[in-house]
Every structure is written in C-alpha cells, then in structure tokens.
Amino acid sequence: MLIPMNGCVRLSVFPNRNRQRLMAEYQKDEKLTDILKKYKVNYCWGDKRYGIGVWGSYNSRLVTRFLITGSKLEQIFHYSNSSIVSLMSGKKSADGEFFCDNQYRKDALAADWDKRFREKFEEITADTDYLLIDMLEERFDLHRSNTYITKSDALKECINNPDAESVSQEALLESGVWDKKMQSFVKMLKGRFSCRQVILLELYLNERYFDGKEYKNFPDEQEIRKRNRLLKRVYELFMEYWPEANHVRLEIEYQYSEYCHRYGCVPSHLNYKACFALADKVYDIMVRADEQIC
Fold first, then answer.
1. Could you please report the per-residue DSSP string of 17-78?
2. At what angle do helices 177-190 and 221-241 cross, to 10 degrees?
3. For residue range 266-283, what is the model confidence (pLDDT) as tens digits?
4. What is the rounded average pLDDT for all residues in the chain?
5. d(Cα 243, Cα 9) in Å, to the nearest integer?
6. Among the four residues 47, 148, 164, 180, which has the most C-beta atoms within 10 Å?
C-alpha cells in the first residue's frame, strides 16, 4: 500500500532546469554557494496568484508543473485524452464502470464520454487565469456511434473492443466537421477568456529520440510525419478563428523524445529541456508587463 501511494518512491523528482550548467561549473572547482545563487530557478511571481488550466497533452501539464514549483501558482485542471471534435459533440452514457488500473486514464475517459469540460465549463474554469492549449491529443482518430469518442490511450486501456465505427481525423477535416467543431470550441473559450489569457502551445509528435549517446529516428517516422501534417492543419484552424491568442512555438533543436522520460520514450513525450524552454516562453507571456529579474 505504501509504494503505490508514494510517487516519490516510484518516480524520480523533476530535474532542475540548470542542473547540467551547475555541474559543469562545479567540476571547474567553482564555489558551490556562488553557483547555486547564479543558477537558482528564475521564475519570480512575487505576490501574484495565478490559476492555470491545461487542455491537451502531458507536455503542457509538465510545463505547468515547472512553472508552479515553489510558487503561488496553482494548476486548476488538466483535460487530456480527448479530441475537440469529441468534446463539442453530444454526451454518451457509459455502460457500467471503466475497468483499468490507471485512475487518471479512467477519469480522462469518463470526461471524454460525458463532455464534462464543456458541460461544466464555467464551473471548471472559474478560478483559471490562464489557459494552456496544445493539440497533441488530436493525433488520435475517433469512434462514431451516436456521437464521437476519442480513440485515446485511455480508451484502449479501459475498453478492449468498443462497438463503434472508426473515423479518421483526415476524414473529419475534409468533410468540414472539424471546421464547425473548432468554431464552437473557440466561441466557448471566448465567452470566458480574453485573448491575453489563452496560450496556444504548437506542439508536434517527435520523429526522433535521444538514447543517452546519440539521436535516433522512431521506426514509424512516416506515420509520425503524416500525423504532424494533420496537427499543423488543426493549429492553423485554431489560429484562423482566434489569431489574437498567444501563440508559442518550439525551436527545432528541442523537438525530440528522450529515453529517460518518466512515462516512456514515445513520440508524444517531449524531453525536459523542451518543457523548460516552453515554460520560459509561457512565463514571459504571463508576466511580460511587470517581469522581475531573479
């Protein structure tokens, strides 16, 4: 019982953003206390209290974790394993309980079925000052019966053979379904947030990973590129309907996965350096007017 309930036993703490630079200088016989002062985490929030919500992948959640560590910030919610097409479609009642050991995925799947982020939008976002959005969950196709359900990792883990027709994201884009759903999604967001409060992280699947010594390509590189072309169209659609929203891109040198990621070396997981770089960009947006220097 003790180990399953203690994340620190099962997983290492997040690495400090400046660890490698600190260790390099320490090896040069620099004074440790001076190095620690030089490389302390540089997010200064003062007395500000921000609530941050996340719609999208684990990467955006991790960016938020880096931002709130040791601060007064709070993550209000994180919704993942759900497509916008599914979210903006009708509710579906679950027949009984979802059976899997991962409670996080069970909750994510339940939310995708009952569309609770849309149904309780005002309540869920009531204490949210900034909304981080990425579209990586749109890499999943959908099931269609009387509504749309995302063919997410959560669905695959909790339900083996869902009784529904499969429909591709490409087909939804070509048929115009995506256009309508994105308009509805942006309209919902605009009813609650200003463009200043919304930060779109333009994230893609990684074609390569770092194994500790060298960079290697994932074996399904062509499928990843196909999915990324689809994701690009979805991002463009969001920016078409809300061009004033904050928009963050990741430099190409950070676009890779790494073998030591706590949840696995897969194309959808960014490396820690990338998430630190994104945290820097989000920080600049959030406190641009009155940013302090640490």
1. TTHHHHHHHHTTT--HHHHHHHTS-----TT---EEEEES-HHHHHHHHHHHTTSS-EEEEE
2. 50
3. 999 999 889 999 998 998
4. 84
5. 44
6. 148
pLDDT of residue 10: 43
- Give pLDDT, residue 290: 47
Is residue 150 a contact partner of residue 157, using CB atoms and an 8 Å limit?
no
pLDDT recorded at residue 49: 75
Nearest to 85 by CA among 20, 159, 32, 150: 150
Identity (one letter) of the amino acid at 52?
A: I
pTM above 0.85, yes or no: no
Amino acid letter, residue 71: S
Structural contact between residues 74 and 50, judged by C-beta atoms closer than 8 angstroms: yes
Is the pLDDT at 36 greater than 70? The verdict is no
| pLDDT tens digits along 160-178 | 656 678 999 999 999 999 9
Under the phi-then-psi rule, with left for phi > 0, alpha for psi from -120 to 50, and beta for the rest, what region is 248?
beta
Residue 140 in contact with residue 196, Cβ under 8 Å? Answer: no
Give tens-digit pLDDT for 65-89: 888 765 667 888 999 999 999 999 9
- Tell the residue number behind the tokens 């479609």, with chain if given: 89
Name residues whose C-beta falls within 8 Å of residue 272's C-beta, 6 or more positions apart in sequence. 14, 15, 62, 258, 261
- Distance (Å, whole) CA 275 – CA 281: 10
β-bridge pairing 198-202 and 246-249: parallel
Residue 8 token pair: 């620190």
pLDDT of residue 136: 97
Residue 239 near residue 231 (C-beta atoms within 8 A):
no
Residue with tokens 């040791």: 70
Query: Within its chain, how far is the Cα of 21 from the centroid?
Result: 27
Q: Copy the structure tokens of residue 9.
A: 């036993």
Span 83-129, pLDDT tens digits: 999 999 999 876 556 677 778 888 898 899 999 999 999 999 999 99
